[in-house]
Amino acid sequence: MIRVEAFGATALLITLAEQPDDALPLRIARLAERLRTELGAALTDCVPGWTTLLLHYDLLRTDLPQLQSRVQAALADWPGDALANDGGRLHEIAVWYAGEDLAEVARLCGLIPAQVIDLHAGRDYRVGAIGFAPGFAYLGELDQRLALARRATPRTHVPAGSLAIAERQTAVYPQASPGGWHLLGRTAQRLFDPHRQPPCPLAVGDCVRFVPIDEAAYRAAGGEP
Fold first, then answer.
1. How far apart are the first and last CA of the chain?
2. I need a surface site. Which of 32, 161, 210, 221 has the fewest CB within 10 A?
3. pLDDT confidence of residue 82
4. Half-sphere exposure of 170 toward its Cβ, with a 13 Å CA cutoff?
5. Which pLDDT does position 171 carry in this prediction?
6. What is the C-alpha separation between 34 and 38, in angstroms, rounded?
7. Burial of 9 (0-12, 13-18, 19+ CB in 10 A)
8. Could you tell me which residue ranges the Carboxyltransferase domain spans (predicted)?
9. How far is the C-alpha of 223 from the C-alpha of 163, rounded, in Å?
């Protein structure tokens, strides 16, 4: 059941489903586009999640009852918007599967490393949310056979470009940062650049496909040790 409720003094939380599904992130992204267009400067930020859309608004341009009314009108034909019928953009990310945790992930999952690679690279992933760090895209859903809880002890330093998994999600660390996910490999592709427009090539609703490459191809693409 869809819920629309106040979230603090200047925000509105729209809960669109109880559980995510493959099509939901794209439909939420299209709803966000529509509301940005219709509300204009009244919105100061619009934050899609796996099942939610959080709207931050300017009290000098609108108020809660007005915003709720506009949102309810937009929801009246959601997800009937024709824009929701496309599949989002597909991004291919080349990965050298030689992560620090690959062997351990295989052991914990009762597999061999080659099977982990095949399972991970064998499906496309939907971008469900972007957060934690600039350009950090949460991708789902991971094959159930690879589902693992986060590491008991997070690392203080995970290199930029590290491909990782946790629970039923996978992601690439766009910058070096602390992190508690299991590392499967590395990519030389830059997934966040503040000098590029847009800074992050991935958007909520897009799809990502990981393409296994060898070390030589990784180095040739500019990959770091």
1. 48
2. 221
3. 44
4. 30
5. 98
6. 6
7. exposed
8. 2-202
9. 13
Give the tokens for residue 124: 């496309």
* Average pLDDT, 10 consecutive residues per value, the chain (225 residues): 93 93 88 94 94 96 94 85 63 98 98 98 95 93 97 96 97 97 97 92 95 97 88
Residue 142: DSSP 8-state: P
As a whole number of angstroms, the distance between CA 118 and CA 211 comes to 10
Helices (H) and strands (E) in the chain, counts: 5, 13
Question: What one-character DSSP code corresponds to residue 19?
Answer: S
The pLDDT, as a whole number, for residue 10 is 95
Which run of H or E residues covers position 12? strand 11-15
Vertex 130: Cα angle to 127 and 101 (nearest 5): 75
Global pTM value? 0.86
Angle at alpha carbon of residue 58, lines to 52 and 64, rounded to 5°: 65
204/129 Cα distance (integer angstroms): 6
Which of 78, 71, 19, 81 minimizes the C-alpha distance to 50? 19
CB atoms within 10 A of CB 90: 10
Peptide bond into 48 cis (omega under 30): no
